[in-house]
User: Fold this.
Amino acid sequence: MLNQNTKLSQIEKTKLRTWVELDRVSIKKNYETFKKIIKKETILMVVVKSNAYGHGLVPFSKELVRLGVKFLGVDSFDEALDLRKNGIKTNILVFGYVSPAYFKDASEKNISITISNTVALENLIKTIKPPLNSPLVRGYKKIKIHIKVDTGLGRQGFLMDEMDKVLEFLEKNKAKKNIEIEGLYSHLAVGEDLQGRTYTMLQANRLNIWDEAFKKAQYKFLKHICATSSTMFFLELHFDMVRVGIGMYGLWPSKETKLAMQKKYKPYPVLSWKSIITEIKKLPKGTKIGYDLTEELKKDSTLAIIPVGYWHGYPRALSSKGIFNVNGKKVKLIGRVSMDMIVLDITGVKAKVGDEVAIIGGEYGHYAEADQMAQDSDTINYEITTRINPIIKRFYRINPEIRRIIK
Assistant:
């Protein structure tokens, strides 16, 4: 990781060929935005799953801890272990499936896990109930769990009619001695669109049924259902905790959210993805370019090669469509996206070998952005950033001007 005020030298750029820069100021701005939205007593969990949406799991999490985040959300137990190994002591919840082989580690390392079905619950009870007279009984660390309810997404979670069975099972096995039910939660199906308000409230009401029953059974826990959009839309559903993911990275969760909230909130994109020009050539009108000869030059042209392709995470679907930024000018990808190379048409642009190319972000304009890439390749911005190859180096720095407010 670079010093926060350091920029890559030209030699470092040529060695790396492609890299990702992340802006500390933007992270802070986004964090402050969501802290203002929620009440003081509501916990702000930041979701850092999938390599922090492509931003770098450990360094991004450390930035959040420095800002004061008290809860992190990940998808896999491996991600949680990685955070613990790197000295992060903040509360962590694993959303995805966790093998019973990890239950003991979860207890010892203070990692909360999701229990969303009866098989997982039965395996949990088997794990945390040591044999009689076992030395594990005394001083055994409780395992923290979050019960997940499927209130209408049709994905992970206990079904509504399983509530009594779950409570019965927990009481029968005296789970209170070895299990701490730290949370009760669900996930919204149409939380990114105000048009889905009726269904969203139906889901919230269903979670409230479980909430009342578990409280009646004397369990104390954090109730949570909101992600980024619903945190902006439904203040009444903030409950004890909200889970903010894509918004913390300065990206809109959906077009609907942007249309509804862009006058009220400003996201600050954190990530810039860059490369360099490694070769420039002039080719005459009529020359065919790339695999399958899919494109033909309509005039004498100047082309630039950059060492990035679909292996690095650049979508092949953007063949002949991708937009880049070279020295402040908008340039277009020409021909097929290859595994490790892309050809750009830089006709009329002053450029030389070694010049920086903005794939996402950069210091000029708003041509190259994850939202634009997502639109042009018929996907969502989540996929654009998360698919950036994890081995590409990420650097954190301060950009005091913060030019990239997405409008």
User: Anything to note?
Assistant: The first strand starts at residue 18 and ends at 23.
